[in-house]
Specification:
The protein has about 230 residues and is mostly beta strands. About 15% of the residues lie in helices and about 35% in strands. The protein has an 8-stranded antiparallel β-barrel. A two-stranded antiparallel sheet has the order 1-2. The longest helix is centred in the first third of the chain and has 22 residues. It is globular. The N terminus is likely disordered.
Length: about 230
């Protein structure tokens, strides 16, 4: 039976719009609908049953993508890469990779020339808004603002990573298409925790423009410290 992702709402605000403040101005950012019809296997850990052959190959070669991207980007951007710390460290993944549902600031960094060899070898973009939502036994990750809008599920894959299988939405607020229905819009990556309240989604060889795309996620608001 086909499974359709429910309308994404931020659990923290019980179905309401979320206000993002910038100085004195604000505008509502609503968690987008992720209309991604897929056929999930009975075992929520069995993401290989869904992944397309092309994405499976890219994920298998993610270490190669890291090496190539950093080799291409480091000569002129060594200081910027070092400043990012664990975010751009291939060995930076920590245990307990799953994020909590909620609203996140997400910032994209791209590395390497990509398959077209025309893009800048290092770019860091301004933060945008992402959401994580619990959906049955899986988590859903959605980017709500910006020009690049991936949305899809996170699948368990060991103690240090989750696998992201999703697709690109056309515009903010629109639903992502079904994963596997259009390989030009599919996205597959590895989701990892790289610090306290800091995660990354690593996409090897995205559609165009870079060898590696790394999206940093940090909570929009940090939880209070534990009471001792």
């Amino acid at each position: 039976m086909r499974h359709v992702l429910r309308d994404a709402c931020l659990a923290l605000l019980a179905g309401g719009a979320v206000l993002i403040f910038s100085g004195c101005a604000h505008r509502p950012v609503v968690a987008p609908k992720v209309v991604a019809e897929v056929l999930p296997p009975a075992d929520p850990n069995n993401w290989p049953a869904l992944v397309t052959p092309g994405d499976a190959d890219r994920l298998k070669r993610i270490d190669e993508a890291w090496r190539t991207a950093l080799t291409e980007a480091r000569p002129r951007n060594s200081a910027a890469i070092t400043q990012e710390g664990a975010l751009l460290d291939p060995a930076g993944a920590l245990t307990r990779a799953a994020p909590s549902p909620g609203q996140y600031r997400c910032r994209v960094v791209t590395l390497g020339k990509g398959t077209d060899h025309r893009g800048p070898v290092f770019q860091a973009f301004k933060p945008q808004t992402c959401f994580v939502q619990a959906e049955e036994k899986l988590l859903v990750l959605m980017k709500a603002t910006g020009s690049s809008l991936p949305g899809g599920r996170l699948w368990d894959d060991g103690d240090k990573r989750l696998i992201f299988l999703g697709a690109m939405a056309d515009k903010p607020g629109a639903g992502a298409p079904a994963y596997g229905s259009n390989t030009q819009r599919d996205r597959a990556g590895v989701f990892e925790r790289v610090g306290d309240f800091r995660w990354r989604l690593v996409t090897p060889w995205p559609a165009a423009g870079s060898t590696l795309e790394v999206m940093e996620l940090v909570p929009e608001a940090l939880p209070p410290p534990p009471v001792r």
